[in-house]
Every structure is written in structure tokens, then in C-alpha cells.
Specification:
The structure holds two protein chains of two kinds.
Chain A lengths: L1 E8 L9 E8 L4 E5 L6 H8 L7 E6 L2 E2 L8 H6 L1 E5 L10 H10 L5 H14 L15 H13 L5 E5 L7 H16 L3 E5 L3 H7 L2 E6 L2 E6 L9
Parallel strand pairs in A: 3-8, 3-9, 6-7, 7-8
Antiparallel strand pairs in A: 1-2, 1-4, 4-5, 9-10
Helix pairs in contact in A: 3-4, 3-5, 4-5, 5-6
Chain B lengths: L2 H14 L1 H37 L3 E5 L4 H4 L11 H13 L3 E7 L1 H11 L17 E6 L4 H11 L5 E6 H44 L1 H9 L4 H42 L8 H30 L3
Helix pairs in contact in B: 1-9, 2-7, 2-9, 2-10, 7-9, 7-10, 9-10
Classes of the chains: A alpha/beta, B alpha+beta.
């Protein structure tokens, strides 16, 4: 589903590489944690998948497509296949829960009946059935993250990228979010999650990719956070 | 494409930056208005040229009895004689530069004078023998050289009071209109530049205030066109607002300056009608749209990453 082929990335005007010679493959339906300290290259890794950045060397493939050969006007098509969730939720405060989720479909030109059907479905899936009329500031952090996940998932993407989705949440709420991501993963969506949360990584026992200073220092299936080399 | 979504986005954007929107509309209006005035003046100049080319170009005014003292060198005999007049007419008709000669007798000239100066109390004191008879000459090609040639040939001949060409009469008007065209164009160029900068900045502000929305649109895979369209339409609406105000300006220029001031004081030539005003406005619409949408697109390229 996602393949990195000797990928390096150096940002302009910076001597140190953000990523160095990364090669890896993430299969369809996998659940992968990406861990590493700040500045280890996690964000760059995500941005390369979303084609927000281009690699300085090497190739990135997503869903069988070579992103370096993807023309600019086809990028939106790529991003429709990738759902994205952030630590800070990024909801629109002046729209209700329903409108926030519907927005993701409206702007890619889906028809009104499709939206009317898909939005309540996905809200039920994330456990927010009946809260569609609320505004984001009326919801708890966990609920807001569920809205964000609903928005990322409403178009049924093949890949879900979550950038520290539990970073702003207490442990108990985080468990709920992880259960939701797990459920989405079991339904066949590839999930790539960046996190600092040791407990979650240790509990889930999924594949772990560890980045350190731009190098891939660990690729372990059923890994834990505090692995000692 | 969901039209309702796009329209609501446009008006949200315009309302959020109301002061900038007003600034854009006003500067675009001044720019386009000046452009419109320049266009009207060009129409007017070309119409006057057409008018003038259609008519006789040179008038050879003949002596009246009062010219004996005023133009002693050529009118020493007083009132022009029939012999002199016939000779002059025959001579003009034989001139290779001349296409046609129309004689105008004193009674005819008097009738025309009364018609033109209608309402003026002076007409009551003027008698037919004070108005000169003339030979109106239409040239084959009315260039300045040919006119000057005719003038110098006939100016000094016996029985000729003076030779005048219409160009001399219309010169101050042509000068006025050329001046207006040049100054309006200058102001228009400066204002177009100003309007462009304002539009670029307005769209930039608008893009910044909606970066949250556009960021999400980008992430969920909205097409570039779809993300940019509300901003472009915002520019277009502001541009059309400018066109509307400019159209009012151009119309009032025609109504107040041309119809009320110029037309009554320069009765010997015709002025442009409302059809030309309409043409001008129809030209301003695409110019305004192009200006606004072009500047918006430029701004988006720079400030809205997609």
C-alpha cells in the first residue's frame, strides 16, 4: 500500500537530512506505529506520503502509484484515498459536527443524497450518533477527535494517517480512540499512526517503525515502545 | 460542483473583508471610470472627424459691403461682384485638389445663421447683407497640406474676405478631447495598478482568514479549482461592483458634461449618443472582470498553497 524506496529528504537551507535512505513497505490492511523523538523525521515521513513534500532522493509509492510521477492536478485524487487526523483535531468551529463531516464530501463534489447517507453512517461508526447537531466547542476532546476521525474516514479512504491522535487526550479517552482506530483497521483500512504514547504502543502490539535523526533504526512487527537495542 | 456552497463561501469572504472589498470596488471603479471616459473621448474624436470629413472642409467667405474697411486689400470694391464670384467658383471647380464647390448666397447664409443662433437677441439686429456669401469647398483628400494649399491660393484674391477651414474651428474641441483622453488614460493606468495591488492584497487576506477551511479542503482532496473558485469569484464580484460604479460615472459624464455643458456651447458639431456610452460600458465589463480575476489568480498562486 505504501512503499519507500531509498528515500532521503533534505529541506532547502538545511545541512542535516530530515530522512536518510529509508526503505520500507506497509502492506494493505496493516496497522503501523511510527515512533521517535521530536525532529526524528516522523512528520516528514507523513508529509511524503501525502505528497506535501517531494523526496530529495528515492521514490515513494502509495496505492501502487509513484508519487514522483504524479502530476500536480492529480494530487487531490491521491489525497481522497488518504484520510488524515491530527493532534489538534482541526475542526471548523462555526460548523456543527454533521456539517464538519459533510464538508469533506461537499468539497470533493459528492451529491447531496450521498452526503445525507454517508454522514450519519460514519457518525454512528465513531460513536457520535445523535450528536450531529452539536458544535465542536460543546464536545469533549475525545468526542472532537472522533469527529475528526469521522471526517477523515467518511470517504472510506484506503489509508488513514493519524498524527499523534491521542496527544491531547487523557489515557482513558485515548483508549477509546485507539479502539475506534483498531475497528477502522479491522475493516480493511491501512492505519499509520505517529505517537509518543508508550502505553498505547505496548498495549496494541502492532508493527513499530522507529525513526532517529532521520534514520530508520527499528522495524519490528508486534513491537513495544521501550525496545532496548 | 455545488453552486450553493460556492456562493455562500463568496459572500462570507466578501463580508469578512468588507473594508478591503469597498476599497477594491472604489479603486476599480475609478480605474474603469477613467478608462471609460478615455474611450468616450476617443469615440467623440472619431465621430467629429467623420462629421467633419463628411462636410465641406474649406469655406471661402466672400466680401460684404462692410468689408471695404475691414479687409481693404481684397475687398476694396466692397460687396463681392457676381463676376468675381463666378470666376472664383470656376477657378475652384477647376482646381485638381477640389472635388466639389457649393455656393452659398447671402440670403441662404443668413437663414442658416438665424437657425444656428436661434434664441440669441443678436439675430434681431443682423441683416442679410452683413452675413457673407461663401463658396463651400469639398476636397478630394482633406489633408492639412491640401487645405493649406487652398487657403494660400485663395486668401489674397480679390473679393475674398477670408478662407477658413473647419479644422481651425474644431481645433479647440479636438484639443480638449485629446487632453481629456490623455489625462483620463494616465489616471486610469495609475488606478489600474492600484486596483491590482489592492485586489492581490484582499485575496491574500481572504485566503489567510480562511486558511483553516482551505487546509482541510486540501487534505480531503478537493481539487485546486474548487479551492480557488470562491476566491476568484470574490474578485469577480468586486470587479463587477467596480464596473457598475464606473458605468454610473461614465453615464454622468455623458449626462452632465457632454449633454449639459459641451453640446449647448458647441452647436456646430454633433456629440456622441447613449449608444456609445453603452458600448463603453460593454467594453468595461470584460476589462473589469479580467483585471479582478487575473489579480486574484496571481495572488492565489502566491499565497494559497494547494
Amino acid at each position: 500500500m505504501i512503499r519507500f524506496d531509498q528515500v532521503s529528504k533534505t529541506y532547502p537551507n538545511q545541512s542535516r537530512a530530515a530522512l536518510r535512505d529509508i526503505s520500507l513497505e506497509i502492506e494493505r490492511g496493516e496497522f503501523v506505529f511510527v515512533i521517535g523523538s521530536s525532529g526524528s523525521g516522523k512528520s516528514t515521513f507523513m508529509r511524503l506520503i501525502l505528497r506535501e513534500e517531494r523526496p530529495s532522493a528515492g521514490r515513494v509509492y502509495v496505492a501502487g502509484k509513484d508519487l514522483s510521477k504524479l502530476s500536480n492536478w492529480k494530487i487531490p485524487q491521491l489525497r481522497r484515498q488518504i484520510g488524515t487526523v491530527f493532534q489538534d483535531f482541526r475542526l471548523l468551529p462555526n460548523k456543527t459536527v454533521e456539517q464538519n463531516v459533510a464538508f469533506a464530501l461537499e468539497v470533493i463534489g459528492k451529491s447531496r443524497p450521498t452526503i445525507g447517507k454517508a454522514v450519519p453512517e460514519v457518525l454512528d461508526l465513531v460513536g457520535l450518533g445523535g450528536k450531529g447537531g452539536r458544535y465542536p466547542n460543546e464536545l469533549s476532546g475525545g468526542e472532537q477527535q472522533r469527529v475528526a476521525i469521522a471526517r477523515a474516514f467518511v470517504n472510506r479512504p484506503m489509508v488513514l494517517i493519524a498524527d499523534e491522535p491521542t496527544g491531547n487526550l487523557d489515557p482513558e479517552t485515548s483508549v477509546g480512540i485507539m479502539k475506534l482506530l483498531d475497528r477502522i483497521n479491522r475493516a480493511g483500512t491501512t492505519v499509520v499512526m505517529v505517537t509518543h504514547d508508550q502505553a498505547i504502543v505496548n498495549q496494541m502490539r502492532r508493527r513499530v517503525l522507529e525513526l532517529d535523526g532521520g534514520n530508520l533504526v527499528r522495524d519490528q512487527s508486534r513491537g513495544v515502545y521501550g525496545y532496548v537495542r | 460542483m455545488r453552486a450553493q456552497f460556492v456562493f455562500s463561501e463568496i459572500f462570507i469572504g466578501l463580508r469578512r473583508n468588507l473594508t478591503m472589498t469597498i476599497a477594491v470596488v472604489v479603486s476599480a471603479a475609478v480605474a474603469l471610470g477613467m478608462l471609460g471616459v478615455a474611450l468616450l473621448m476617443l469615440f467623440q474624436t472619431s465621430q467629429m472627424k467623420d462629421y467633419w470629413y463628411d462636410k465641406v472642409e474649406v469655406s471661402v467667405f466672400l466680401c460684404t459691403k462692410e468689408d471695404q474697411g475691414l479687409h481693404a486689400s481684397t475687398c476694396s470694391a466692397g460687396q463681392v461682384t457676381d463676376t468675381q464670384m463666378t470666376a472664383l467658383q470656376a477657378d475652384l471647380a477647376g482646381n485638381p485638389l477640389v472635388q466639389q464647390v457649393f455656393p452659398e448666397t447671402q440670403p441662404e447664409a443668413f437663414a442658416r445663421y438665424k437657425e444656428q443662433a436661434k434664441g440669441s437677441p443678436v439675430t434681431d439686429y443682423v441683416t442679410p447683407d452683413q452675413i457673407p456669401a461663401s463658396l463651400r469647398v469639398k476636397l478630394k483628400s482633406p489633408t492639412t497640406e491640401n487645405i493649406d494649399a487652398i487657403r494660400s491660393t485663395y486668401q489674397g484674391q480679390q473679393g475674398v474676405e477670408t478662407v477658413s477651414d473647419q479644422k481651425t474651428i474644431l481645433k479647440p474641441l479636438f484639443k480638449l478631447f485629446n487632453g481629456l483622453t490623455v489625462s483620463a488614460t494616465t489616471v486610469a493606468v495609475v488606478m489600474v495598478g492600484l486596483a491590482l495591488m489592492l485586489i492581490v492584497n484582499t485575496v491574500r487576506l481572504s485566503a489567510f482568514s480562511r486558511r483553516r477551511e482551505t487546509g482541510i479542503m486540501r487534505l480531503v482532496g478537493a481539487s485546486n479549482f474548487y479551492i480557488r473558485l470562491p476566491f476568484l469569484m470574490e474578485g469577480a464580484v468586486a470587479g463587477l461592483g467596480g464596473v457598475a460604479v464606473a458605468a454610473l460615472g461614465v453615464a454622468s459624464f455623458k449626462f452632465f458634461l457632454i449633454d449639459r455643458v459641451l453640446a449647448p456651447s458647441f452647436t456646430f458639431t454633433s456629440f456622441i449618443g447613449w449608444d456609445k456610452v453603452l458600448v463603453t460600458v460593454l467594453i468595461l465589463v470584460p476589462v473589469g472582470l479580467l483585471m479582478a480575476v487575473g489579480a486574484s489568480a496571481l495572488s492565489l498562486r502566491k499565497y494559497l498553497k494547494v
